Amino acid sequence: MYLTITETAEYLSVPEATVKSLIQQKKIRALFDGSEYLIYKDQFTTHLKQVEKYKYLVEEILSEPIPEDLDIKDED
User: Fold this and answer.
1) How far apart are CA 5 and CA 20, in angstroms?
2) Which candidate, 24, 6, 31, 4, places its Cα nearest to that of 16?
3) 2-63 belongs to which CATH class?
4) Coil/strand/helix, residue 38
5) What is the DSSP string of 3-59?
6) Cα(3)–Cα(37) distance, integer angstroms
7) Does the pLDDT value for residue 71 go beyond 80?
8) Segment (H or E) for 22
9) 73 in helix, strand or coil?
């Protein structure tokens, strides 16, 4: 399935200018049909899966309790 620049911006939750910039930098593959750019939606699937994976890992790390430091001495 192909998306326009506007649809791609909505799908990725970024401004249209960002999508245009990424196309110019060749970070997003796009076809130009003579009047507009068409972007293949499935090229983002792997990236979005990795982002979700990293979010899960970060949440897991942040939820671990901080261990007590054995070197701290009670001065009371």
Assistant:
1) 7
2) 6
3) mainly alpha
4) strand
5) E-HHHHHHHHTS-HHHHHHHHHTTSS-EEE-SSSEEEEGGGGHHHHHHHHHHHHHHH
6) 8
7) no
8) helix 16-24
9) coil
Q: What is the pLDDT of residues 12-64, one digit of tens each?
A: 889 999 999 999 999 899 999 999 999 999 888 887 888 899 999 999 999 98
Query: What single DSSP character describes residue 10?
Result: H
Q: Which helix (H) or strand (E) holds 2?
A: strand 2-3
Q: Give the sheet arrangement for strand 30-32, strand by strand.
A: 2-3, 37-40, 30-32
Q: Are 39 and 2 in contact (CB under 8 A)?
A: yes
